[in-house]
Structures
1.
Amino acid sequence: MSKLSGEKTSVTMQSVAAAAGVSPMTVSNTFRYPERVQEETRQKVLRIAAELGYVPNYAAGNLASGQSRVIGAVIPSIKNSSFYNYVRGMQDAVASEGYELILKLADTQRNETAAIETFVGLRVAGIALVGDEHEEQALRLMRKTGVPVVEAWVQDAPFDMAVGFSTYEATRALVDLLLESGRRHIGFIGYAGAASRRFKQRMPAFRERLAAYGLRSDLVHLVDETDGFGAGPKALEGLFRLDPDLDALLCPTDIVAAGVVFECGRRGWRVPEQIAVVGWGDYEIASEITPALTTLQPNTYQMGQAAMRMIVERVKGDESAGKIMDTGFEVLRRDSVSWTSEPMRGISTVTA
Amino acid sequence: MSKLSGEKTSVTMQSVAAAAGVSPMTVSNTFRYPERVQEETRQKVLRIAAELGYVPNYAAGNLASGQSRVIGAVIPSIKNSSFYNYVRGMQDAVASEGYELILKLADTQRNETAAIETFVGLRVAGIALVGDEHEEQALRLMRKTGVPVVEAWVQDAPFDMAVGFSTYEATRALVDLLLESGRRHIGFIGYAGAASRRFKQRMPAFRERLAAYGLRSDLVHLVDETDGFGAGPKALEGLFRLDPDLDALLCPTDIVAAGVVFECGRRGWRVPEQIAVVGWGDYEIASEITPALTTLQPNTYQMGQAAMRMIVERVKGDESAGKIMDTGFEVLRRDSVSWTSEPMRGISTVTA
DNA sequence: TAAATCAATTGTAGCGCTACAAATGCAGAA
DNA sequence: TTCTGCATTTGTAGCGCTACAATTGATTTA
């Protein structure tokens, strides 16, 4: 008797088999390979199993077969909504493949490693991570066990497989949009400290693009990732001091952008007329504040789906090591950028 | 050889034992009951295990012992931030107890049942749910297996154990706050449809309290839970039509409240002078918009902690069935309610 | 009619680990 | 010196399930 269930008796495959008058293997097959079992037999087994309240023990199945139908995903945060669609995409994809998704939250690399250890300990079928910065210990572990790993929000040099979009291209598209709208004094808000690669490629893209058009590319202000809305006011202050003619702002997230918009309101600056504001991430707030935020929408739902599919295909035997999928992005043009002034010549906006 | 690991060889307890020149049981004890193993032996085993890259197989351990160090939590949503601190509390609590927390997302009761089935299949040590409305199938399953279950945001009649706060008391405290601030035409925004019990007790509390002071208690408007910010404008429109003297609004979440504030801005109505707005949940946006929202802050971090502790204690053998913990709440007074007019006589605000 | 074929079912072994009881070895007591 | 008590270590059995090979029995083919 299982200790887990305390005084309750536990229903095993054995007991179901006995009650149904078949062998344990027939019960096993009924659940794992229904097509191997005759319709009539299968119905009987299912009925008895339901009556007895049988719940397959995944731990035992996993141990016996060396296989698992559980995939683990590590999510850096649920504080903001940017991972909502990513998780939904994963959920929907695994459901249609007959797998299960379990999540672990890890806000630091240390915790990510712990989460990976748990998943490996559970012998999951695959692991989905966000970003490409992991502790050496985590890398060793994944390398050693050979568990399929997908990194989301990653475009190059994956540990195993990756799915993402080019933040370089995306930033370029946003800068081009601002140039097209007639802005010439464009500020950039970046994250200071150990912010992940997800943010790293943006600043170079920003600088190169502006430099290419002979414009100031040094209007950069770094804020703390944990500041949330509060980062907006700080950055606005800092950038305005660098260039009083500041007429556009590229923000690292819609949250920061919303903070900027609120602060502009407090200062009586009109958005978008005086200052155009561009967010990143298509958070819910982006479409709800006034003016609605022009922002970058990564196809995170598709990213989640793709991540799960890659793992399932690998399990099925595809030789997919090193595979990278690009799920693209879209620039959502909304009211926080206006097209009133003369566009920069030679600019044409890329939107996907 | 495990099929999971493909062509890599898998390191088992056996191989560690052989390499360290001890029996498998000593390796097992080293990990599970370190105090049973001599310091010297333990160090050697740990060193060898690290060198070989050994990762304990939880599935096997679970099967052999009937115990698990993994606790599963079902979260209804990560779309908004209200569960952030709840999850953090759970994480911190399990970490200090030597357990692991895994999450599953379930936005419907159907999905919740599926999540519970997965957790039961994995033979987790306990399950944390949100709310007290579950499918019959889920209840049967939990009853049958006897797995420890904690319901969060629940105050009475738990399935097994519960942790929460009184939404009745909380609503009363908010109504009293508005009465104290001098409001007399208070509107209530509720959720229509199958919104959970988390919302159900609020309307009666609202009505009773207003009725007790001889004020209108029928200024109620129901909105769709999925509307987000958009619910604000709809409700404002509906309630204003019921009573043009409307001077305060109780919202089901800070998101809806923010929607109301934004809409007031569009209509040129001043908050809080013309209309006081009260939110619920202490979302990040509540302190960032202008005016900052007066809102109700449930101690969700403490709720998460308490939930995990209850499960761990149950596993340790405490007879804790039916246990209920109250983690309380706080009313955060901010700018969206002002104290300009004469207070209702006899009112004194309760804040925890 | 006998042999071959095939779908459906079954027995056996073992996945990696831990509970439990048994064995070992060593200090101090008699 | 032998015995007892104790900390430490070790065999053994088995958790619940599935891979795989073997078996059964009905149907088809020669």
2.
Amino acid sequence: MARNDNSVNMKKTKDSYHHGDLRAALISEALKLLEKQDLEHLSLREVARNVGVSATAVYRHFPAKDDLLKALADHGLAMLGAQQKEAAAKARGRLAFAQTGRAYVRFALANPNLFRLIFAHMPARTKPGAMSPEGLPARLMQDFITMDVGPKASTEQVFLSALRAWSIVHGLSMLILDEQVDRKVAEGLIDRVIA
Amino acid sequence: MARNDNSVNMKKTKDSYHHGDLRAALISEALKLLEKQDLEHLSLREVARNVGVSATAVYRHFPAKDDLLKALADHGLAMLGAQQKEAAAKARGRLAFAQTGRAYVRFALANPNLFRLIFAHMPARTKPGAMSPEGLPARLMQDFITMDVGPKASTEQVFLSALRAWSIVHGLSMLILDEQVDRKVAEGLIDRVIA
DNA sequence: TCGCTAATGTTTACAGTGGTAACATGGCGC
DNA sequence: GCGCCATGTTACCACTGTAAACATTAGCGA
């Protein structure tokens, strides 16, 4: 028998059969792991092991690994949105808009794996016509855009403008994360790329 | 014993022990598989199986899975570059430049998995100062940029302009692939986003 | 033409992974 | 006080990447 099957090392501190709030613990541990290793090396078993629970216990809270990942993505997205909002609050008008973009990139650089996870596991958030639903970072952008382009602009023009803005910040984030562009240099240019 | 070990079904057509050009066959098969399934479901064993060779034979040509992936990425990058060049040849000046950007996005949409693979496995292609080495799509862009900004622009200005352009096309590609934005709608706007 | 060697494939084996099924525990409502 | 059922655990399974040992043969020098 392999040394490493489902009977992982249990926590010794508490011998309580039930955990208390395993779901939250799993998410929190997974987020912690994502700070140090990338998505493809994040295994359910490791998360369970670190939390001190058997590997299959996870399935009581998430039907499949992907559902855990979705939960992580939601968490990450909320963080991103919060940071954007916070950044926007420190300025006004166009500048405030630029700040949300910069915050977007900064978030990506600060949480590379989480950032990737967000976009790797959140398809179909958008319906035709609407850029994105309530609460999403893009929603924030869209509000600014409307302000920017003027209230009389056509829906398509708003969309176009938002798409352009989002593309820039997202593309810049990705290119830096994927090391397509020298990180140090690009980091220094963020504020000028996103004007 | 599992039904499925390394002794995969061999090809019956040829009973030659040696394959001939296994390396090329592996790459070609892997590329074919990438047209139908995404990167995380691409397994060495499946590639080997389809080529009609044992799983470990792969290791005679690639030290590890990642090296196969790198080879695929190179292949994909060459394709991308070729398509950009071709697109550029059909126009002149600014428009030609826009065409390379549009070709970039079109390539991403036409080869989603390969496109992702390219950027997931080609870090460290760039040195500080130089945007990218010879032959890369970005190199092509940089030439245009120089033309666009004027030959007297500072290195930093060229870099900035190139970074912005690349970010837009890359970001747009990613957002559409990751379904963050309605595909149909966004596709129709490509030419206007990249002006 | 023979035979040796290096290149190329194959077999076997192993640790790790996501996931299912059957069983164990114990907290909470009656 | 007791029983149910949500939550955990143990056994498995198929599959993956990869290492080690063995097999085959292409091709080169004698």
